[in-house]
Design a protein that fits this description.
Layout: E1 2-3, E2 6-7, H1 16-131, H2 133-141, H3 148-166, H4 171-175, H5 192-198, H6 206-215, H7 219-230
Antiparallel strand pairs: 1-2
Helix pairs in contact: 2-6
């Protein structure tokens, strides 16, 4: 017998015990579903709490990072100012170095010109010395030429000792005893004329002699002798 897809073997008699067993099995299954839902809810709530904690930590880290970023921006601004000041100082130092290099170039050029000038003077001097070796050594080896003026000076010098010997000695010199041998020596009276005339003229230095002989022919020495005689 088949009726709307049901067979006779599919039908059974419903009793109180079978209904209670079916209700108990359904209730047991519902309890299992409820317990699984509760466990899932607990797990999800714990995970949500962890996510909330992580979000709070992220907020704190974000605020701290923002404050640090602001500090870094301020430090970067200061660093940029320092970089600009260093750049300005480097530019100033570069200009000073350029000025020093220019001055060094001018100094080197001046020293080079001075060395060339000194070398030119030395070459001229050596050429002049090599060109006139006899005139530079001649006055140092030979006496000066005798002129009329030197003859008059020699004649006056030869006459001055005779004039000094004719003058009488002073009484103090006659009355003074001798020092060791008992002999008396007459000392002539020294006057400014006799002192200047008795002093020999100072010989000229080699450099002056060479200069006078090479340029003026010994006239400087004669002028010095005439000046001593006039005194």
């Amino acid at each position: 017998m088949f009726l709307k897809g049901w067979k006779l073997s599919d039908m059974m008699f419903a009793t109180r015990r079978s209904l209670s067993d079916a209700r108990a099995s359904v209730a047991k299954q519902l309890e299992q579903v409820h317990s699984s839902i509760t466990a899932t809810k607990r797990q999800l709530s714990s995970r949500i709490e962890c996510v909330d904690r992580n979000i709070d930590e992220c907020k704190e880290l974000t605020s701290a990072t923002r404050s640090e970023v602001l500090q870094l921006q301020g430090e970067v601004g200061k660093f940029s100012i320092n970089v600009e000041s260093v750049h300005h100082a480097v530019k100033t130092l570069e200009t000073k170095i350029d000025q020093i290099e220019g001055k060094q170039e001018m100094t080197a050029r001046g020293v080079h010109l001075l060395c060339n000038f000194a070398e030119t003077l030395e070459n001229r001097r050596t050429a002049a010395i090599q060109a006139s070796p006899s005139t530079s050594s001649r006055p140092a080896l030979e006496p000066p030429p005798v002129t009329h003026t030197t003859g008059v000076l020699l004649r006056t010098r030869s006459l001055q000792p005779a004039r000094l010997s004719c003058e009488p000695p002073s009484p103090s010199i006659q009355a003074s005893p001798s020092s060791s041998s008992g002999e008396t020596h007459e000392r002539p009276q020294i006057t400014p004329t006799s002192r200047t005339s008795s002093m020999p003229p100072a010989p000229p230095s080699p450099s002056l002699t060479n200069d006078a002989s090479s340029r003026y022919g010994g006239f400087r020495w004669l002028a010095a002798a005439l000046g001593n005689a006039a005194r």
